[in-house]
Amino acid sequence: MGTRILDGLAIAAGIRSDVSQQLQQLPEWVGSPGLAVVLVGDNSASEIYVRNKVKACGELGIRSLLLRPVPTLTTDELLVIIDELNGRDDVDGILVQLPLPAQIDAKRVLEAIAPAKDVDGFHPVNVGRLHTGQECLSPCTPTGVLEILQRSRIPLTGAEAVVVGRSDIVGKPTSAMLLRANATVTTCHIHTVDLPKHTREADILVVAVGKPGLITAAMVKPGAVLIDVGINRITNREELERFFPGDAARAATFEKRGSVVMGDVDPAAYAVCGAYTPVPGGVGALTIAMLMHNTVKAARMRRGL
Ligand code: NDP
Question: In terms of domains, do 145 and 271 share one?
Answer without folding.
Answer: yes
